[in-house]
Specification:
Blueprint: E1 4-13, E2 19-30, E3 40-44, H1 53-56, E4 73-77, E5 92-93, E6 98-99, H2 109-122, E7 128-134, H3 136-147, E8 152-158, H4 166-181, H5 194-208, H6 211-217, H7 230-243, H8 248-260, H9 270-274, E9 280-286, H10 294-303, E10 308-312, H11 325-343
Parallel strand pairs: 3-4, 3-7, 7-8, 8-9, 9-10
Antiparallel strand pairs: 1-2, 2-4, 5-6
């Protein structure tokens, strides 16, 4: 698998003001586009994901799996702001000749969809059979289905929402406060804010999981234990793990992107926006998700015409969409069979 690069050399205006003097998107494709272009599966990744869904969704996308490249032409693009090959804060600002660092502009979900549209046209894709995304990826998918209602046949939204909640924004702001508290954050260097980002990741994990998850997976070793608690070392490990593959600038930019998500912005209302979706839509919630609770997916289901709701019963909270592959495959298979019966 090779990561490709799409380069757009022209000025790219941004939704919230400002512009990029061109941009690039890293993307991957798996499988082959069929003769009539009817087998496109576009996958939208979550916050710290990359352009290869066989890497981070390896129980769902890949050879012999539910979304198999022998059946699908699978496309996934790395979002603007992420350092996995797309234009981001470590890219060169051509106006200054130096990296953007903290001057990188706010990038919205909508900006990314407009960028994806340019990539789609470059790839000669005129129809997306199935558009799927979870979390931040689901936010991208629902926005795209509103902007281009005729483009998408099937829409799968997992553990996501129509507007990011005050609760979610509070978690993200707490994480950015941790980054900002790192003294190196003020410095113009690629690893600025790295220690703060470790704390940010620790905060994020509390929202991705829940009380019962930690009670089950990070329990004390014994009643006599007084140090090296598994829950404590686990938080430290996850912070270090992210710092080894990500940077604080991208973490800041993408958490801001999530906060900005609101399909009702500059439209008559959120409900009116969701009513524009014409794709056959499956919405999947996770029973124990405290960050994107099932009520948010039920709201999507209520206001997207003829959408269907299914729920994963999981101990793992929001992260269930990256873990509960068996249940997710069962839900997808059942929905696709019903959709095929109706279509025939």
């Amino acid at each position: 698998m090779a990561v490709h690069t799409f380069k757009y050399p022209y000025t790219f205006p941004l939704e919230l003001g400002g512009e990029l003097a061109g941009f690039q998107l890293a993307y991957t494709t798996h499988g082959t586009l069929n003769a009539d272009g009817s087998n496109v599966l576009w996958v939208c990744h979550a916050l710290t994901g990359n352009a290869d869904p066989t890497d981070w969704w390896d129980g769902l996308v890949g050879n012999g799996l539910h979304y198999d490249p022998k059946d699908w032409f699978i496309v996934c693009a790395n979002v603007l702001g992420s350092h996995y090959g797309s234009t981001n804060a470590l890219s060169i600002n051509h106006q200054t000749g130096a990296p953007y660092y903290r001057t990188f502009p706010d990038i919205s979900i909508r900006d990314n969809i407009h960028a994806f549209e340019l990539l789609r046209e470059e790839l000669g894709i005129s129809h997306i059979h199935t558009l799927v995304g979870g979390s931040l990826g689901g936010q991208q998918a629902v926005e795209w289905a509103i902007i281009q209602p005729e483009l998408i046949g099937d829409l799968v939204l997992i553990a996501t929402n129509a507007v990011h909640s005050p609760w979610g924004i509070a978690f993200n702001e707490s994480q950015r406060m941790a980054i900002k508290a790192d003294p190196t954050w003020k410095e113009a260097r690629p690893d600025a804010g790295a220690e703060g980002m470790k704390v940010a990741r620790s905060i994020a994990l509390l929202s991705y999981r829940n009380y019962d998850t930690y009670d089950f997976t990070q329990a004390r070793d014994s009643n006599e234990q007084t140090e090296n608690f598994r829950a404590a070392t686990y938080q430290q490990y996850q912070g270090d793990k992210l710092a080894n593959r990500f940077n604080a600038f991208s973490y800041w930019a993408l958490s801001r992107m999530m906060d900005l998500h609101n399909v009702g912005r500059n439209r008559p209302s959120i409900i009116h926006a969701l009513a524009q979706v014409k794709a056959r839509t499956l919405v999947v919630g996770i029973s124990s998700d405290i960050l994107f609770p099932p009520s948010e997916q039920k709201f999507l289901t209520k206001h997207i015409p003829e959408a269907e709701y299914q729920e994963i019963d999981s101990l793992y909270g929001h992260d269930g969409f990256l873990i509960e592959y068996k249940q997710l495959r069962q839900i997808l298979t059942s929905w696709e069979k019903k959709r095929s019966v109706v279509a025939s």
